[in-house]
Amino acid sequence: MTLKSEIENILNQARKDISSCKNLSDLENLKVKFLGRKSRFSELLKRIGKLSSEERPIIGKLLNKSKSEIENIIEKRRNSFENTVNNSEHTFDITMPGRPIEIGAKHPVFQVWEEIEDIFISMGFEIAEGPEIENEYNNFDALNTPEWHPARNLQDTLYLKNGMLLRTHTSPVQIRVMKNFKPPIKIISPGRCYRNDKPDASHLPVFHQFEALVVDVGITFADLKSTLDSFVKRFFGEKIRSRFRPHFFPFTEPSAEIDMLCINCHGKGCKLCKNSGWLEMGGAGMVDPAVLENVKFDSEKYTGFAFGLGIDRITMLRYGISDIRTLFKNDLRFLKQFV
Ligand code: DAH
Which CATH architecture describes the domain 108-338? Predict the structure, then answer.
């Protein structure tokens, strides 16, 4: 083999190897193999002085040309590797640690909601649900709340089309349950309610209540009182008891407002209870016979009690929150306290 064809062979081999090599470190090895100090090229370059005067310029030129071609194709290959590596770094670097996934948690109001359900389930209650879009009949008429009652005013109630409205309380679920089931009835019904209220520290147009309804033969006011007392003790502690103040609700007779002993001062009087020693919790009473008759229950045979309490209010008391709006701002710094 002549020197010329040997150089051409080496050049061809280099072209092939370099174009098929797979990564930068293989490329470095090829550079050493073809151009390094111990390569055939270096050897030939060293021996150039020993060639005949005719051969020397021809072979010398060929060697130099081939060497710079190999250098060029190595450089091009290197660039192509570096570009792909850079591109892939932007989109996918398998060595980067993953972004931590933040795990969500139940909202404090919903945690309290579930705790309330558990307490009442343990007392033999079932959970009933009703729709947030309700008709006027269930929300008002069936509950003995006549057309002229101030609660039916546009200022308090958010009306929709066709006699529908956003329920203003969970009490219409009483009607739905009694229309569909016979006594004995023993349910609570937690849910979202709506009123045309301006937001302030104790009101929001959207809020949460739960309703309790018990109807059977021989249900008395004492059952109402003991059920409420048991709940308050289970939820807030043994020392907390409830009391009633006479009141009026169209759907109960007699009716009462429910207070519980202040969880902060236990009756002594403090800022939380505005020095009264008691905290207002909601309304209660014996189901008005007119309501029982509206759902075709025999009011001579059956009696019942009902009450409605605010879940947001109970949550605020449990955690010492003074402004209801903080519950629903969705500020994660606040909500993370309840994880
Ligand atoms: N529905 C009343 C309200 O939202 C609360 C209420 C009072 C519910 C007395 C009752 C009850 O079941 O007996 O203001």
Answer: 2-Layer Sandwich (3.30)
